[in-house]
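Morning, I've got a small favour to ask if you have a moment. It would help a lot if you went through both lines with me. I owe you a coffee for this, so here goes:
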Amino acid sequence: MATIKDVTDAFLRIAPPTDMEEGEYDNVGLLAGSFSATVTRALCCLDVTRAVIDEAIEKGAELIVAHHPMIYAPIKSVADDSVTGAKLIKAIKNGIAIYAAHTNLDFTPDGINDYAAELLKLSDVEVMCPFGQKGAGLGRSGELPKETTADELRELCGKAFRDDFVRIIGDKNAAIRRVAVINGAGGGDVKYIDSAIKAGADCLVTADVKHHVAVYAVDRGFTLVEPQHYTMEHVYIEKLAQKLGALLPEVQALVSEKDVIPRV
């Protein structure tokens, strides 16, 4: 019978911590629970919400594997007067461990960023900012099958990421052939635009674009296509469950049905 330690060891192969974003704070690994506890079912999700914890209890899952760490910034107490504290207490009381694979899963080979590039049908894919093991790093850039417009790329992103609310910053008629893609919050800093331009990209596909970053892109004459953070990453959760199940067949890896997009 598998233990939580077996799962954490499996993740050293799926997404080793050395593939975390270089120079940035993160919190990956086992966040709550006992390494020696047995596990027969693992519930995979993007975010550990109250609904996901209730689902784990209902389905008899002893482990929640999340992309986003439920504990990110350091906390000073675990009490039920905070959302995080209440969730931790409920999970622990019900024998549920919580594991997070965050930027290591984003940027590892065959991780979320590579999958985003695959869904966009990019070829000749290169790592924009390499670090960690070979093939790991922040961002991918590659060639579309043919030149398209930003508006057509927006439509492709909508289908690839199952997203009805993809936006464009810049000229919707801009000609796009080489695309940079950073899953998640690549829209938080202008440095990612500079990296995309350096990689020869005509456009950056990323989420969570801040206002000053949008203004910078327009001033540089550079196009951004912005799916939602959730949609860019949630498409990978089924693949994550498959990877875990292949490494540990004795663990039933489930995809959460309650891990839903917070924006409607």
About this structure: The first strand starts at residue 29 and ends at 32. The domain at 112-229 is CATH 3.40.1390.30 (Udp-n-acetylmuramoylalanyl-d-glutamate--2,6- Diaminopimelate Ligase; Chain: A, domain 1).
